[in-house]
Design goal:
The protein is an alpha/beta fold. It contains 17 helices and 12 strands.
Length: about 400
Amino acid sequence: MSVGAGSGHIKAAEALEYTFAVDSRVTEVVNKDALQYTNKLFRDFYSTFYHSLVRSAPNFLGWWYKTSDEPWSTDTMRIMLDRLNTKPLVAFIQDFNPHIVVCTHFMPAGIISHLITTEQIQARLSIVVTDFYAHAMWLSRSFHRYFVAIEETRAHLHMLGIPQERVTVSGIPIHPIFQQAVDRTEARLTMGLHPDKPVLLLSAGALGMASTEFMVERLLNLNSDAQIVVVCGRNDTLKQRVISLVHKCSLNFRVLGYSDQMHTLMKLADIFIGKPGGVTASEVIACGLPMCVVTPIPGQEERNSDHLLEEGIAVKCHDLTTLPFKLEQLLQNPDKLISMKQNALRFAKPQASQIIVDTLLEDKLTHLSLSKHQRNALSMMARSQTSNNINKYY
């Protein structure tokens, strides 16, 4: 189960659906967006309103992300609102009566956790965190197992009181197609690209970033003879505007709309330019592709960016006016690009979905429920840890 608030949760669920479906041990697999079982107002709050804030008030999202990142500080009210608006979802889950539930978003995880706690279903609930860091909203009162991207997140959850054996460092699930080899020369020639000139892949995301036009304008000032593939997502208006911008330099640009061939585009490219969503970043690094991070959403994407920078996989363009400079620096330093590619492949976990499926189908652990007393104790410990860290500076 996922939630259509950003494409990453959906894509992670689709990768797991595919891997479960081809496994002979699985009788039936169903992949659902939980918002399909809610009312329009609730759907708009989770998806339309979220996308609106990403575009118009990203700093507010960053403030809310940090303010709400305290274990179980907001879950009582949030879960109550979720339960009031998801009665059809509860009915569907009870009717399907699954053995295993895997959630790639915290909203359905909270609903299913309640159903397990109240003994309305007997399923084992596992939660797949789709960013490199696990925000407090991912914490569940009753669960079977967590799957996270990196060891640091496992250590963080353990500090919050979740037993280490309940947390598997699987990586973020991506479609197995990203493991397939691609002939770079053939793929470039098929797209009408020169096989030996560098290729930059600029992704506007599924919905099309508002800053894409400005980035393309800046890329027109590149001094190097780079070829640039711009993927505009499902925003046809953006695609037409970009085509108009680059018409005089069309030999160096390829402008696409939504593409289901991102694995090929990532394999043929030399540098990826885009936002560091958890799933997108996992796809990029699985392809061994160095990243130039632009306009991360304050909060989860900024934290994803921090991890990518720490691992030497990415550079970050803090001001889009300097985008050509950042890219020229990389293109003129092939040794650094090779090092970034090697770091990406070392950090990558392209088999995450298979690890998750194998773990769940073979696991013998029962579900774990955290009492109110335990949750309060863990919340106090987290607040104390934060306070101690702050006091070090005063």
